C-alpha cells in the first residue's frame, strides 16, 4: 500500500449535498456523525467545501434546479473523488419518480461509486457504505469517474 | 446611499442541510437586505398526489418531509377522514398524539443541536443528538422505523402501543425529561448561548402578527397561538398542557420556547400512557372518497401545517395543497435578517428552523431580463390551458 493510499484511508473527508430529498437521509447522515454511531472513529469528518472532500455524499433525487449545481459541486472536487448515494431516492428517484421536476437518480448526472438503499437507510447502513469505499481505496480500485471517462 | 455588496450563500453550504440560496446584501458587516431563493428542492409532490390513490398518497405524504413526516401524514388523514365523515377510534386518536409528541421532541432536540452548531458550539450538537437517539429508539420500538414511522392510515393508526412496551417507554420519557430540563437550564444560563442569541433578530409581536409567523417563531414573539390548544385535533382536547411563550422576541426566545415545549410534550406523552383507552386502533375506510373538500390543520414542530384536500368521487384526490409552516415563516425571516451582523446570518436563518423540503415553490427566472418571480398555480394552469386549447 502506498503512502498516499494509507493517508486516504485514514482520513476520508466527506462533503454533503442534498439534491432535493426529504431530509430523512440527511438527519440519518448527521446521526451517523454524532456520538452513538460516530463515524469519526474512521477519520471521517464532514467538510463544508467540496474542494476539501474525498467523498461526496448525495441524498435525494436530482431535481431540475439542483442538476447543474450537483455537476458543479462534483467538478470542484479534487481527484480521486468518490460518490456515495444515500437513500433510495438518490439511487432511482423512488417515490418521486415521474414527478415533473425530478430528473431521477444521482447516476443520471454524475458517476456513483456506492449506493446505499433504504428509506431512509439506518446510520449503520451508511457506515457500511463508507467502509465499502474505504475498502475500494485499500484495494487500489479506480473511482467510478475515471472508469467512466 | 452607499452601494451594498451582495454575498450569495448556498445552495450547497455548510450552514444549510438542504439546498437554498440567500443573497445577502451587506453594508460593511451589517445585512441590509436578504433575498431568499427556495425552489431548489421543488419536486412536484402536490401534482404527484393527483396520480395516486388515497392509500398510496400516505406513503408520499410522509416523504414530503423527513423530520415531520408524522405531521404531514396525520394532517392528510384528518382531511380525508373529514370528507368521508369517518370517526376514528379513541385509542387511535391517543396514539396519533403520542407519536406526534415524540416527533416534536426529536425535532426540537434536533434544532437545539443544530443551533449549537450554527454558533460554533458543537458540544451542544453532540449532546442533543446523543439524547435524540433515545427518542428514535422509542419510535422504532412502536413503529419499527426510526424516521418515517408509517403509523397513520385513513381511519386510524396501523400499529398499537403494546402493553409490554409501556414500561420501557416510561423509562425513556423519564430520561428525556431529565435531559430536557438540563437543556432548558443550558439555554437560560449558559453564557455561550446567551451571548450569541440574546437581542438578535428582533421580531416585535405586532410584526410577527402582521407577517403571519407560525409556531415557535410566533410564540417566541409573545403570541399565544397553538393549533393543539385553539383547534384541538387527535387527543389534545383531553390532554393537559400549556402553551409556552416568551416576550423577548429574539432568537433566544425561539430557542427557549422549543426547549420548554419538549417538557410539555413529555408531560402529554406520560398522560397518554396513563390514560390510553382500550378498543380498536382503526376503522375500515372505503377506497373511494365522495366529492367534497376539507381543510385540515395540524401543529407541526415548526408551526401550523395546513392541508387542503379536494376529492371528486374517485379513488384519487383532485387536488391537494400543502401549506407547510416554514413557508409561512420565510417572510419574517427576511425581515429578521435585516440589520444583523453577517456572522449571525446562520443562527438567524436557523432560528425559524427552516425545512426546505416542505416549502419549495416554483420560481421562474427570465434570463434575458434578469427577472425572477414566483409563479402561482393559476398562472401555470392558464398556460397549460392556453397550450392545449382548453377554455
Compact description:
The complex is a heterodimer of chains A (about 150) and B (about 400). Chain A has a single domain, classed as Rossmann fold.
Q: In the CATH hierarchy, what is the superfamily of the largest domain in chain B?
A: Cytochrome-c3 Hydrogenase, chain B
Bulk shape of chain A? globular
Within the largest sheet of chain B, what's the order of strands?
1-2-3
Fraction of helical residues of chain A: 25-40%
Largest sheet report of chain A: 5 strands, parallel
The CATH C-level class name of the largest domain in chain B: Mainly Alpha
What is the class of chain A in the CATH system?
Alpha Beta
SSE order of chain A, one letter for each helix or strand: HEHEEEHEHEEHH
The CATH architecture name of the largest domain in chain B reads: Orthogonal Bundle
CATH topology term of the largest domain in chain B: Cytochrome-c3 Hydrogenase, chain B
Gross morphology of chain B is globular
Distance between the termini of chain A: 25 Å
Q: Can you walk through the features of this model?
A:
The complex is a heterodimer of chains A (149) and B (391). Chain A is an alpha/beta fold. Chain A has one domain (3-144): Rossmann fold (3-Layer(aba) Sandwich), CATH 3.40.50. Chain A has helices at 3-10, 24-33, 64-76, 88-92, 123-139, 144-148, and strands at 14-18, 46-47, 55-59, 62-63, 82-86, 102-104, 114-116. Chain A has a five-stranded parallel beta sheet, sandwiched between helices. A two-stranded antiparallel ribbon of chain A has the order 4-6. In chain A, helix 1 runs antiparallel to helix 5. The mean pLDDT of chain A is 89. Chain B folds into two domains: 48-324, Cytochrome-c3 Hydrogenase, chain B, CATH 1.10.645; 362-391, no CATH class. Helices cover 48% and strands 15% of the residues of chain B. The longest helix of chain B has 29 residues, at 90-118. Chain B is globular, with a radius of gyration of 21 Å. Chain B starts with a strand and ends with a helix. The chains are: A alpha/beta (149), B alpha+beta (391).
Amino acid at each position: 500500500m502506498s503512502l498516499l493510499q494509507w493517508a486516504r484511508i485514514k482520513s476520508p473527508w466527506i462533503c454533503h449535498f442534498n439534491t432535493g430529498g426529504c431530509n430523512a437521509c440527511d438527519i440519518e447522515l448527521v446521526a451517523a456523525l454524532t456520538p452513538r454511531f460516530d463515524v469519526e472513529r474512521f477519520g471521517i469528518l464532514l467538510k463544508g467545501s467540496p474542494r476539501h472532500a474525498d467523498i461526496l455524499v448525495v441524498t435525494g433525487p436530482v431535481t431540475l434546479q439542483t442538476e447543474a449545481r450537483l455537476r458543479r459541486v462534483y467538478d470542484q472536487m479534487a481527484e480521486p473523488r468518490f460518490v456515495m448515494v444515500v437513500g433510495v431516492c438518490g439511487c432511482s428517484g423512488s417515490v418521486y419518480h415521474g414527478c415533473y421536476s425530478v430528473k431521477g437518480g444521482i447516476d443520471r448526472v454524475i458517476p456513483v461509486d456506492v449506493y446505499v438503499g433504504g428509506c431512509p437507510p439506518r446510520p449503520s447502513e451508511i457506515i457500511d457504505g463508507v467502509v465499502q469505499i474505504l475498502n475500494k481505496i485499500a484495494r487500489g480500485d479506480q473511482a467510478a469517474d475515471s472508469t467512466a471517462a | 446611499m452607499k452601494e451594498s455588496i451582495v454575498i450569495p450563500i448556498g445552495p450547497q453550504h455548510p450552514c444549510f442541510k438542504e439546498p437554498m440560496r440567500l443573497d445577502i446584501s451587506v453594508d460593511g458587516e451589517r445585512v441590509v437586505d436578504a433575498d431568499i431563493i427556495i425552489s431548489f428542492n421543488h419536486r412536484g409532490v402536490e401534482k404527484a398526489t393527483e396520480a395516486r390513490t388515497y392509500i398510496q398518497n400516505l406513503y408520499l405524504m410522509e416523504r414530503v418531509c423527513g423530520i415531520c413526516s408524522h405531521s404531514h401524514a396525520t394532517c392528510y388523514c384528518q382531511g380525508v377522514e373529514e370528507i368521508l365523515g369517518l370517526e376514528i377510534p379513541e385509542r387511535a386518536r391517543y396514539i396519533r398524539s403520542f407519536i406526534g409528541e415524540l416527533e416534536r421532541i426529536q425535532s426540537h432536540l434536533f434544532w437545539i443541536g443544530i443551533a449549537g452548531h450554527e454558533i460554533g458550539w458543537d458540544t451542544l450538537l453532540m449532546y442533543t443528538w446523543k439524547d435524540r437517539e433515545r427518542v428514535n429508539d422509542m419510535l422504532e420500538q412502536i413503529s419499527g422505523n426510526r424516521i418515517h414511522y408509517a403509523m397513520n392510515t385513513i381511519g386510524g393508526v396501523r400499529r398499537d402501543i403494546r402493553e409490554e412496551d409501556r414500561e420501557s417507554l416510561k423509562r425513556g420519557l423519564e430520561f428525556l425529561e431529565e435531559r430536557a430540563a438540563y437543556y432548558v437550564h443550558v439555554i437560560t444560563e449558559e453564557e455561550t448561548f446567551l451571548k450569541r442569541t440574546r437581542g438578535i433578530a428582533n421580531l416585535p409581536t405586532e410584526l410577527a402578527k402582521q407577517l403571519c409567523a407560525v409556531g415557535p417563531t410566533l410564540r417566541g414573539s409573545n403570541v399565544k397561538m397553538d393549533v393543539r390548544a385553539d383547534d384541538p385535533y387527535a387527543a389534545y382536547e383531553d390532554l393537559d398542557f400549556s402553551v409556552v411563550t416568551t416576550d423577548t422576541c429574539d432568537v433566544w426566545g425561539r430557542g427557549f420556547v422549543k426547549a420548554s415545549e419538549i417538557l410539555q410534550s413529555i408531560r402529554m406523552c406520560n398522560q397518554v400512557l396513563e390514560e390510553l383507552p382500550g378498543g380498536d386502533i382503526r376503522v375500515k375506510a372505503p377506497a373511494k372518497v365522495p366529492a367534497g373538500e376539507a381543510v385540515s390543520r395540524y401543529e407541526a414542530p415548526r408551526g401550523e401545517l395546513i392541508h387542503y384536500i379536494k376529492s371528486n368521487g374517485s379513488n384519487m384526490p383532485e387536488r391537494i395543497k400543502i401549506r407547510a409552516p416554514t413557508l409561512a415563516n420565510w417572510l419574517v425571516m427576511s425581515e429578521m435578517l435585516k440589520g444583523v451582523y453577517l456572522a449571525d446570518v446562520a443562527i438567524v436563518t436557523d432560528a425559524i428552523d427552516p425545512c426546505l423540503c416542505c416549502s419549495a415553490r416554483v420560481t421562474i427566472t427570465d434570463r434575458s431580463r434578469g427577472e425572477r418571480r414566483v409563479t402561482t398555480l393559476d398562472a401555470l394552469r392558464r398556460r397549460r390551458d392556453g397550450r392545449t386549447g382548453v377554455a
